[in-house]
Amino acid sequence: MKPIHIFLATVVVASFVLPVTAEGGDTRSVEVTGIGVVSQRPDVAKVAFSVETQGKDVEKATKFNASRTARLIDGIRKLGLDTLDIQTRHYRVTPRYPDRQRSDRDLQPMGYTVHNTINATIHDLRKVGALMDRATASGADRVNHIRFEHSDPTQARSRALERAVENARAEASILVGKAGAMLGPVLQMRTGGPHYAPKVERMMASAARADTPIEPGLLETRAQVTIRFRIE
Questions:
Q1: Looking at 134, 149, 164, which one is the last position of a domain?
Q2: pTM score, two decimals?
Q3: Contact 85/127 with Cβ under 8 angstroms?
């Protein structure tokens, strides 16, 4: 199990004491919002590459693109990627006209542009730079973006929720204690998370660069809870 580092766990966006009428009498309560943020290092990277070709007719343009894409896939597979880790994300064929401002429906296209986007998933982050270099050397016109993820974010999500609850309770205890009362049981709880945000690095590349440096950094999982406690 890879370690999870607590990056930040802070409390309260709003805290206030308010009377609430309940059956059988008045119930004094305090409502607080706690925020927990947990960071962990990614262990998966998803890289999107684009291959763009042109031709005077659809058949030539698509065949040329298929040939270039096959070369790209063959090149990145040599880094040890499994077939299931390589997939087509987007494929588009667009006609090209002499004058794009014209709306004449009878205008014949002067050619076609074929755009193919390939996603590659790599589980060894030390090879991300080599993957980009190999892809551009094997025919990729662009590196669209890199998406860093964690293969199992469940533990970080649970920990972020725990931290948010702990800090909400701690804040409520301080508020109620300073007011000369005691904190009672939970009356109501709402959650606004956890929110897991994969890290996306957007970039454009048109030529291979040896030993491209890539730093994945940390992923953040954020949770927010709003809790209303009884005041004893």
A1: 149
A2: 0.72
A3: no
148 pLDDT above the threshold of 80: yes
Domains identified in the chain, total number: 2
**Per-residue pLDDT tens digits for 101-139:** 555 666 788 899 999 999 999 999 999 999 999 999 999
Tell me: do 49 and 37 sit in the same domain: no
Domain enclosing residue 116, as ranges: 44-149
Same domain, yes or no: 176 and 102: no
* Residue keyed to tokens 């649970």: 158
Please report which residue ranges of the chain form alpha helices under DSSP H: 58-77, 128-137, 154-178
Compute and round to an integer the Cα radius of gyration of the chain. Answer: 27
- Rounded CA-CA distance 203/7 in Å is 27
3-state helix, strand, coil in the chain (%, to 5): 25, 45, 30
Distance CA 159, CA 92 (A): 42
Flag whether pLDDT at 92 surpasses 60.
yes
Give 14's pLDDT tier (boundaries 50, 70, 90). Answer: very low
Do 162 and 126 share a structural domain?
no
Q: How many Å apart are CA 135 and CA 69, to the nearest integer?
A: 10
Counted residue by residue, the chain has a size of 232
Tokens 């999870």 correspond to 4
Q: In the prediction, which pLDDT does 196 show?
A: 74
Q: Is pLDDT at 2 greater than 70 in this prediction?
A: no
Percentage above 90 pLDDT, the chain: 69
Query: Are 24 and 49 in a shared domain?
Result: no
Quick one: tokens of 222?
């954020």
Task: Judge whether 203 lies within some domain.
Answer: no
